[in-house]
Amino acid sequence: MMSEVHQAITAHSKKQHALIRTFVELDAKREAYIEEAVALCQRGEPFSVHNINEVTKQINELAKNGIVPQRKYVTIDMVKEYVQKLNGKSL
C-alpha cells in the first residue's frame, strides 16, 4: 500500500516538473521573440507580435494547471511604448 502512495506522489511530482520545465522553455522562447520585436522596432523596421502571443497562449494553457504563472498577451503598441521608454532613458 505504501508503494502505491509513493508511486502516486512520484508520478504527480514528475508531472509537475515536466510542466515547469515546459514553462521555462516557453518563457525563454517568448522573451526571445519580445527582444526580437523590440530590436526591429528600435530600427524602425516592421515587426509582429504574433509569435510572442502564440507562445503566450501555450503558456496560459499550462497555467490552467495552477502550477505556473500566466503571461499577458502583447500588442504592437506595448512594444512601441516600451521602446519609447528605452529611448527616453538613453538620452
Beta fraction of the residues?
Answer: under 5%
Distance between the termini: 68 Å
Shape assignment: rod-shaped
Secondary structure class reads: mainly alpha
Biggest beta sheet summary: none
| Global mean pLDDT | 93
Number of strands: 0
Helix content: over 70%
State Rg: 19 Å
The stretches of 5 or more residues where confidence is low (pLDDT under 50) are none
Q: How many domains make up the coordinates?
A: 1
Q: In DSSP terms, counting alpha (H) and pi (I) runs of 4 or more, how many helices? A: 3
Description:
- The chain has helices spanning 2-42, 50-63, 76-90.
- The protein has one domain (2-90).
- The mean pLDDT is 93.
- It has three helices and no strands.
- Helix 1 (2-42) runs antiparallel to helix 2 and helix 1 (2-42) packs across helix 3.
- With 91 residues, the chain is an all-alpha fold.
Structure summarized in a few sentences:
With 91 residues, the chain is mostly helical.
What is the secondary structure topology, with strand pairs?
Layout: H1 2-42, H2 50-63, H3 76-90
Helix pairs in contact: 1-2, 1-3
Pfam family, one: DUF2533
InterPro entries: DUF2533 (IPR019688)
Keywords:
91 residues; mainly alpha; 77% helix
